[in-house]
Design brief:
The protein is α+β, with helices and mostly antiparallel strands. 45% of the residues lie in helices and 16% in strands.
Length: 439
C-alpha cells in the first residue's frame, strides 16, 4: 500500500477500507507516514468527508493505538461526560462531584484547552498541589475511595489522537465532523466508563456553529459509542455566549465552588443540573424527573460540595471553599466599562474566549505556559441592561501589554440594542440511539 494512493483515493471522494485506515494510523503513529502526507490526507477528509463505516473504523483504530483503561474492581455503572469544547465551560468540575454524591462513580479523563476553548485539566491545574497526572493505580484507588477522580489522559491513551490533534490544530483541519467524532470517541472508548453523556456545543464559540451540524455530529458519536458497547446519549447545548460569568482557570474554580454551594450564575447552574441528571439517567438512577430531584438534593444538602472537596484533597489539592486566597492570582486588574447604554443583545463566545486567552488564560503555542490567574469575570451578560460607564467586565492578567488587544477583542464580542433581546435557549436537543428530540 502507498500513502500517496490513499491520499488520491480520498481526494476523489472514495471511501477508505478498514485495512487502508489501519495502514494510515499505524504508519502515522509509528512515524513512517510523514506529517506532510498526513496533512494532505486530513485536508482531503475535511473536504470529502467519511461515511459512517469509515468514521467508526477510524475511531476504533485510534482508540486501539494505545491502552484501554478498565477498572473492573469498581462496581456499578461508571458514567463519563464529554464536552466538544466551549468558553467558560466548567461543567465537568461541577457535575462530576454531584453525580458521585448521588452514588454513581465518575472516572474521568480530561484534556487541556484547545484553541479558544478551555480544558478541565488546565482549570484543575490552578489548584495548588492538585495532581492531574495520575497513574492507573492512583486513578482507580481514588475512584474507588471517593467516587470521583479527574485525571489527564496519559500518553498511552489514544496516542494516535494526540499526534493527529497536534497536526490538525496547525493545518486548519480541526472542524471536520468525522475527525472530531473519531478524536472524541476514541478517547471515550479507551476510558473506563460504561456510559457516556456527550455535551455537543453549538454556536459562535463552538466547533459546530449550526444546530444542524451539532445534531449530525451528536448522531455520529452516539452511534459509535453504542457500536463500541457504551450506552451513549448527547445533549446539544448553547455556546453562542460564554457559559456562566467567568472565563479563565482560577476564576472558573471559584465560580464552580459557588455553584456547588447552591449559588452562582443561574444559566450555568441549570445546564449543570440537567447534564448531571442525564448522567444519573444513564446510570439507571430513575426517570429524568427523579434524577433532577437527586441532583437538587445533592446540591442543597452540601453533599456535592463535600464530594468536590474530598476529590481535591485525594488528588493532593489545597483549597478552602470559603477563602480562595491561595489560588494563583493575576497581578493586574482592569475594569471594562460600557461604552453605551442599552441591552446586551450579543456576547459572542468566540471573541470572549480569545480575549481571555490573550490575557494569558490560554496557550498561544503548544508549549506556552498558562497564566492560571488570568481571565475575565463578566458582570453583565446577554440580555442585561447596562448604562454607559457601568462595569461590564473585569480583566485579570499578569501582563499589562495584553490589556489593549484583549479589550479590543472583547468589545468585538458585544453588541447593544435599545430593546431587550429574546431569551436565549440553553439546551436545544437530546440525541440517543432512539433518535433526536428537540427541546
Ligand atoms: N475535542 C477533541 O477531543 N477532539 C476534537 O477533535 C475536537 C474537540
Amino acid at each position: 500500500m502507498r500513502t500517496i494512493d490513499l491520499i488520491n483515493k480520498k481526494k476523489s471522494g472514495k471511501p477508505l477500507s478498514a485495512d487502508e485506515i489501519s495502514f494510515i494510523i499505524d504508519g502515522f503513529t509509528n512515524g513512517i507516514i510523514p506529517d506532510y502526507q498526513m496533512s494532505a490526507l486530513l485536508m482531503a477528509i475535511c473536504f470529502k468527508g467519511m461515511n459512517p463505516r469509515e468514521t467508526a473504523e477510524l475511531t476504533l483504530k485510534i482508540a486501539h493505538s494505545g491502552e484501554l483503561v478498565r477498572l473492573p474492581s469498581i462496581g456499578g455503572i461508571k458514567v463519563d461526560k464529554h464536552s466538544t469544547g466551549g468558553v467558560g465551560d466548567k461543567t465537568t468540575l461541577i457535575i462530576s462531584p454531584i453525580v458521585a454524591a448521588c452514588g454513581v462513580s465518575v472516572a474521568k479523563m480530561s484534556g487541556r484547552g484547545l484553541g479558544h476553548t478551555g480544558g478541565t485539566i488546565d482549570k484543575l491545574g490552578a489548584i495548588p498541589g492538585f495532581k492531574t497526572a495520575l497513574n492507573r493505580e492512583e486513578f482507580g484507588e481514588i475512584v474507588k475511595g471517593v467516587g470521583v477522580c479527574i485525571t489527564s489522559a496519559s500518553e498511552n491513551i489514544a496516542p494516535a489522537d494526540k499526534k493527529l490533534y497536534a497536526l490538525r490544530d496547525v493545518t486548519g483541519t480541526v472542524d471536520s465532523m468525522p475527525l472530531i467524532a473519531a478524536s472524541i470517541m476514541s478517547k471515550k472508548i479507551a476510558s473506563p466508563s460504561d456510559a457516556v453523556l456527550l455535551d455537543v456545543k453549538t454556536g459562535k464559540g463552538a466547533f459546530m456553529t449550526s444546530l444542524g451540524e451539532a445534531v449530525e455530529l451528536a448522531k455520529i458519536m452516539v452511534d459509535i459509542g453504542e457500536f463500541a458497547g457504551k450506552k451513549t446519549n448527547a445533549l446539544i447545548t448553547n455556546m453562542d455566549i460564554p457559559l456562566g460569568e467567568s472565563i479563565g482557570n482560577t476564576l472558573e474554580i471559584i465560580e464552580s465552588v459557588e455553584v456547588l454551594k447552591g449559588r452562582g450564575d443561574a444559566d450555568l447552574a441549570s445546564v449543570c443540573k440537567l447534564l448531571a441528571a442525564h448522567m444519573l439517567l444513564l446510570a439507571d438512577k430513575g426517570s429524568l424527573e427523579e434524577c433532577v430531584k437527586l441532583v437538587e438534593e445533592a446540591l442543597k444538602s452540601g453533599r456535592a460540595l463535600a464530594k468536590f472537596m474530598e476529590m481535591v484533597e485525594a488528588q493532593g489539592g489545597k483549597l478552602d471553599f470559603n477563602n480562595f486566597d491561595n489560588l494563583p492570582k493575576a497581578s493586574i486588574i482592569h475594569k471594562i466599562k460600557s461604552p453605551r447604554t442599552g441591552y446586551i443583545c450579543e456576547m459572542d463566545a468566540l471573541s470572549a474566549g480569545i480575549a481571555s486567552s490573550v490575557l494569558g488564560a490560554g496557550r498561544e503555542r503548544e508549549d506556552s505556559e498558562i497564566d492560571y490567574g488570568a481571565g475575565i469575570w463578566l458582570h453583565k451578560k446577554y440580555g442585561d441592561y447596562v448604562e454607559e460607564g457601568e462595569l461590564l467586565a473585569t480583566f485579570y492578567t499578569s501582563d499589562n501589554s495584553k490589556i489593549e488587544a484583549a479589550a479590543e477583542k472583547f468589545m468585538e464580542a458585544i453588541k447593544f440594542d435599545s430593546t431587550k433581546p429574546p431569551q436565549i435557549k440553553l439546551i436545544y436537543a437530546f440525541v440517543s440511539k432512539a433518535g433526536v428530540e428537540y427541546l
